[in-house]
Design brief:
It contains 20 helices and 23 strands. By secondary structure, it is an alpha/beta fold. The chain is elongated, with a radius of gyration of 53 Å.
Length: 798
């Protein structure tokens, strides 16, 4: 009974992205997006409430020019000074443990007080809610646990140690012994939940050393210092104290260098003074003994040369002693290097820079040791850099020593020549010249050292701090974090992203078909109609489907559209045999069959409905049949056709139930009796509707499909998966059918899973010929019964 002229399979129509549909997809679940945003904002609010606010204060230091000295052998004044490098180097000094620890000593650091609030605990510095007297405290080994205290009455209080958790009561003034500590609480504790703990200076190194250092402006000698802390007063106090200690530390370090130079000169002066006294006594005694007053002109010239050369040699020798001390510092310790005896003017500028680099690296290493272990990679890298710089310094020192040794050899050669000249003069004059030369040399060296000592003392007195405080730090009551606006904005964006992502995830993970555009994208089989979702609850017997409820509803009109389109299928047939099937059970093929039968009966069509699902049919419940006899009874020859046909006079429909479940349902449907039954019924009725078993589960429906004039494949919106859309094409290809059409059942208005493509019908062709509307855009137009009101039309009466 297949008619190849009834339906044509044409190529798929083109589908274009419809941005309005994309908007509808997301707008359909606007409350998901709103919910995600609200949840994100709530989390942001909780985060803000439980995150302690951080405050930042700032101050500025001006780096002074080089300390003025009386030494004319200073560095080259024409050398450009790089303040950026100096600020970085001084930043290491500011963050050094010596400066930080000295700064902490100026604060009241020994006891920290806290007040526990509803949400978080707040440090009370510098306020002291009650007075604690420390009687005895180990300098290192003492308990740093938190002690919680609370007033019980005017004379007693309770104390809980974080260490053991036991709660005990004490009187004010009692001596408490806990964790190598002896202390007493002297004043009454205010109402509230307070806590305190004991500290050492070292406990604040990490907190106080968190200083930001940068240039105030490009190529300026102004240093900007910032301190961030949860307590704004502590941040300002510690920053001011650090600046003060840094200025004092700079002066102490510079004076220490001058004092070392003075100490070195004094050690040399003591020895040379004795030699000068001895040389003077020897010269005087020699003059008296030999009754000599003056020397000849040649002897005086030789004596003058000899004393001058010896004096210069002694000066070079003293410089060599200073160089040797510098070399010992390089070889024997890791401390910063100090250049003694005003050697700055006598050594190369490269060596001065190398020593500056070495001191900076040593300071950096000291700072890093507060954060890393000695064998960690950052410390090892610094050790390698220090070793490389020390090697370069040693090479420069070696060159400097070679230069001084060459000068001393030169002076020795010159002295030897003068001594050779002296050896040619008479014996008494020769001895006198030696005594005179020795006396002059010692006096000149003594004078040289005395001038150096005086110069160093004047330099020490002239030393000023290398930096001056320009602006002090003041507490800031405006927190820099958490920044509420930024956190709320970020949370809102995260909420929006989660909302949109949730919608996309649900769509991505959903394998079900929801609209006709999705079907069109998956198959070339035409869609004959779209049946809207039934507006009310359907009982298990599907009795509502038998009579079209609310005939003016959108649902009723969608069923009529399928009925109208059926009249164009197999139009050359006076009567039509229509087989209705689906992929699996629960997709509404029986519901569609009953609705079509009811609508056809309403236009005075003679209709018979056959329940051909012999395995699990429920169609008999719609007509109130007990299903004791039916199609299986007829096919097995137990009953006649007249005995199995039930007439529903109310709706004007004839019905053949499935009957008892036979042991061989598939074989019965393949018999000649089933074929003859359809041939008998076709001339008697306008429409023969056959409700079959699902083709995706069993093959019972195949012989019926091949004998029918029209085959309807039911796809249920939200129930049928993507694979269902491919079954009609497979059936057409395998059995040579051209009369298959699709009915989309239970279509709703949920835009979440709708396709975001729009079919281009203007190009002609395609499968749009077989249906004219899904009525998705007309609900609420006021044309149908019980149209739902829009949410913004709450003011309208029903």
């Amino acid at each position: 009974m297949s008619n190849p002229e009834t339906l044509q399979h044409t190529k798929s129509v083109r589908q274009d992205i419809d941005f309005y549909k994309i908007f509808k997809v997301f707008f359909s679940r606007w409350y998901w997006i709103a919910g995600c945003v609200i949840i994100a904002l709530i989390i942001a609010r909780i985060n803000i409430l439980y995150t302690p606010p951080m405050y930042q204060t700032s101050a500025s230091l001006k780096l002074q020019e080089r300390t003025p000295t009386l030494n004319t052998m200073g560095g080259d004044p024409s050398q450009a000074y790089n303040y950026t490098d100096r600020i970085q180097a001084e930043g290491v000094v500011i963050r050094s443990n010596d400066v930080i620890l000295n700064a902490i000593s100026n604060l009241d650091y020994k006891i920290s007080y806290y007040l526990k609030g509803t949400i978080r605990t707040t440090e009370l510095y510098p306020r002291k809610p009650f007075e604690i007297e420390i009687i005895k405290q180990d300098s290192v080994d003492f308990s740093r646990f938190l002690y919680q205290v609370e007033a019980v009455n005017p004379t007693t209080f309770s104390l809980i140690s974080e260490n053991n958790g036991s709660k005990k009561e004490y009187h004010y003034g009692d001596t408490l012994r806990m964790g190598n500590m002896m202390f007493r609480i002297k004043s009454q504790i205010p109402s509230g939940s307070y806590s305190f703990k004991f500290n050492s200076k070292e406990d604040f190194i990490g907190r106080a050393g968190n200083i930001g250092i940068s240039e105030m402006g490009n190529f300026t000698n102004i240093m900007l210092l910032t301190q961030t802390d949860s307590n704004p007063v502590f941040a300002a106090d510690i920053l001011n104290s650090i600046m003060k200690e840094y200025v004092a530390y700079d002066i102490i370090e510079k004076r220490r260098s001058a004092e070392q130079t003075i100490e070195f000169i004094e050690s040399q002066l003591g020895f040379l003074s004795k030699k000068a006294d001895t040389a003077g006594s020897n010269l005087a005694n020699y003059k008296i003994k030999n009754k000599m007053v003056d020397l000849s002109a040649s002897s005086q010239l030789n004596a003058s040369k000899l004393s001058s050369l010896e004096a210069q040699k002694s000066e070079v020798n003293i410089e060599l002693i200073g160089i040797n001390e510098l070399e010992n510092q390089i070889n024997n310790n890791r401390d910063k290097i100090k250049i003694n005896f005003d050697l700055e003017g006598n050594i190369s500028g490269l060596l001065t820079n190398l020593i500056g680099q070495l001191n900076t690296l040593i300071s950096t290493r000291e700072q890093k040791l507060t954060q890393f272990r000695p064998n960690s990679e950052p410390i090892q890298e610094l050790d390698k850099q220090i070793s490389d710089v020390k090697s370069a310094i040693k090479n420069n020192i070696r060159s400097l020593k070679d230069r001084n040794l060459k000068m001393m050899r030169y002076f020795d050669n010159q002295i030897a020549l003068v001594n050779q000249s002296i050896s040619q003069i008479p014996g008494k004059e020769k001895d006198f010249v030696q005594f005179q030369s020795n006396f002059d040399v010692n006096n000149k060296v003594l004078t040289y050292l005395s001038e150096k000592k005086l110069e160093s003392e004047l330099n020490a007195a002239a030393i000023v701090a290398g930096a001056a405080i320009v602006n002090k730090a003041f507490p800031s009551n405006v927190p820099i974090s958490p920044v509420k606006n930024k956190i709320y904005s970020f949370a809102a964006m995260i909420g929006l992203a989660c909302g949109f992502g949730l919608i996309l995830l649900v769509r991505f993970l959903n394998p079900y078909i929801y609209d006709k555009e999705t079907v069109e994208a998956l198959t070339n089989t035409p869609i004959i109609g779209v049946i809207r979702k039934f507006p009310e609850y359907i009982d298990k017997d599907n009795r509502q489907a038998l009579s079209i409820a609310k005939p003016k509803s959108v649902f009723a009109e969608s069923v009529r559209s399928v009925r109208t389109n059926l009249s164009f299928l197999a139009s050359n047939k006076k009567s039509k045999t229509i087989c209705v099937t689906s992929e699996v059970s629960g997709e509404g093929k029986s519901f569609v069959t009953v609705n079509l039968a009811g609508t056809l009966a309403l236009i005075d069509k003679k209709v018979i409905l056959i329940a051909a699902d012999l395995r699990k049919s429920k169609l008999h419940k719609v007509f109130g049949s007990d299903n004791k006899i039916g199609l299986s009874s007829y096919l097995t020859g137990q009953k006649t056709l007249e005995e199995v046909v039930i007439r529903d006079e109310v709706h004007g429909i004839d019905f053949i139930p499935s009957g008892p479940v036979p042991p061989n349902p598939s074989e019965l449907l393949h018999t000649e009796s089933m074929k003859k039954l359809l041939e008998i019924l076709a001339p008697q009725y306008d429409y023969v509707l056959v409700d079959t078993a699902p083709v995706g589960l069993v093959s019972d429906a195949i012989p019926l499909i091949r004998q029918s004039d029209v085959n309807l494949f039911v796809i249920r919106s939200g129930k049928s998966q993507f694979r269902a859309a491919a079954i009609p094409e497979r059936l057409s290809r395998e059995y040579g059918l051209s009369n298959l059409a699709i009915v989309l059942n239970a279509f709703g208005d949920d835009a979440l899973h709708s396709n975001y493509y729009t079919t281009d019908y203007a190009r002609g062709g395609g499968n749009s010929t077989y249906y004219y509307s899904d009525y998705s855009g007309y609900a609420g137009s006021g044309y149908y019964e019980e149209d739902p009101k829009k949410w913004w039309e709450f003011w309208k009466k029903k």
